[in-house]
Automatic annotation (TrEMBL):
GO terms for molecular function: biotin synthase activity; iron-sulfur cluster binding; metal ion binding. Its EC number is 2.8.1.6. Residues 51-264 form the Radical SAM core domain. InterPro entries: Aldolase_TIM (IPR013785), HydE/PylB-like (IPR034422), rSAM (IPR007197), rSAM_sf (IPR058240). Its cofactor is [4Fe-4S] cluster. This is Biotin synthase. The keyword Iron-sulfur applies.
Length: 334
């Protein structure tokens, strides 16, 4: 593999799309090489240019905590991981409290997530009630199981502006979900007028550069509000824990390559969990979390791995990044 970094940077500045092989070559660099740092700097330049130096903080809370039959190996909600054997769900009042708290804290978008076995009707009912209590301009996003062309429009009617939905790495192998279902759902959401945000996730040390490049290109193909990359967080005691976790530097490198490979119409570039090195490498979207979190073993992630909106602000500030004040431009502009 040979890569001329100056040609790569020129091609990026000219906004000429990169080939699959070029993306693989960029991913194959050592994350600590000067070339990788130049790619990170270029990614940060693009992110700043596209947003006017206004990164975003989106905040998610879970409506329930329950053993999920889809058994994604890396998820603490997966039934097989036995982290949370006892189901629990928020009341509508608690959901409203969580959403309005995150709105007050200045999140640019509020996300509600559920496990794949949460009742769809109930999700719509809670969404309607939460929407009623939020300011009209607040962006409300759902993170829920696969849907069809019949159900997706009901989410829009209930008050969602968009959804987070990802075709995960090794979907159908490390998860109990057919990859085609994920793709069909994304189409159904978009056809229903819901804006889709996505990500290359959850990245582990075993994923090859070819797999990462293919997934980066898949996310680019759906014209999302944002793409990006997030590493797999090791959940202690799970079978997948032995595969390990990539470093923040490698994560930053992948996030930067994802930015270069995305068309400029995709403004957002996310990473998770938040880290200032990621922002310095072109990530312009962090997530804060409240309550249950599929990467945590604590019922209330604010006592564990979760980051608050204020902490995400600090991390962006540490990378000399400005933060948007107001509703998400990623979802509004898409
Ligand atoms: S990632 Fe989602 S679908 Fe998979 S086990 Fe966790 S909650 Fe269920």
């Amino acid at each position: 593999m040979t890569i001329d970094i100056h040609d790569i940077l020129k091609q990026s500045r000219d906004a000429v799309p990169f080939s699959r092989q070029q993306i693989i070559d960029m991913l194959a660099l050592s994350p600590s090489s000067p070339e990788a740092y130049l790619i990170m700097a270029e990614a940060a330049r693009i992110s700043r240019e596209l947003t006017g130096d206004r990164a975003e903080i989106h905040a998610q809370f879970a409506l329930n905590l329950a053993p999920c039959p889809k058994n994604c190996a890396y998820c603490s909600f997966a039934a097989m991981n036995k982290v949370f054997p006892k189901p629990m769900k928020l009341t509508v009042e608690q959901a409203v409290e969580h959403a309005t708290l995150l709105e007050e804290q200045g999140a640019n978008a509020v996300y509600m997530m559920v496990t794949a076995n949460y009742s769809f009707d109930e999700f719509c009912e809670v969404t309607t009630e939460v929407r009623r209590h939020l300011r009209p301009e607040t962006v409300l996003i759902g993170n829920l199981g696969d849907q069809t062309s019949d159900t997706a429009p009901r989410l829009r009617d209930a008050g969602l502006d968009g959804v987070y939905h990802a075709l995960r790495l090794r979907e159908g192998i490390d998860t109990g979900i057919d990859p085609e279902l994920r793709k069909q759902s994304i189409r159904a959401f978009q056809d229903a007028g819901l804006v889709v945000g996505t990500c290359v996730e959850p990245v582990g040390p075993e994923h090859t550069n070819d797999e990462l490049a293919d997934m980066i290109l898949f996310t680019a193909s759906i014209n999302p509000a944002f793409s990006g990359a997030a590493r797999r967080i090791t959940i202690p005691g799970t079978a997948i824990a032995k595969r390990g976790m990539i470093s923040e530097l490698r994560m930053a490198h992948i996030v930067a390559v994802a930015r270069l490979a995305m068309p400029r119409s995709v403004i957002g570039n996310c990473t998770h969990e938040p880290y200032s090195l990621g922002a310095a490498a072109g990530a312009n979207l962090f997530w804060a979390e409240l309550g249950a979190n599929p990467r945590d073993i604590r019922e209330n992630t604010e006592e564990g791995r979760g980051f608050t909106v204020a902490k995400c602000h600090d991390l962006f500030r540490d990378a000399d990044c400005g933060v948007l004040d107001g509703p998400s431009a990623f979802f509004r502009n898409n």
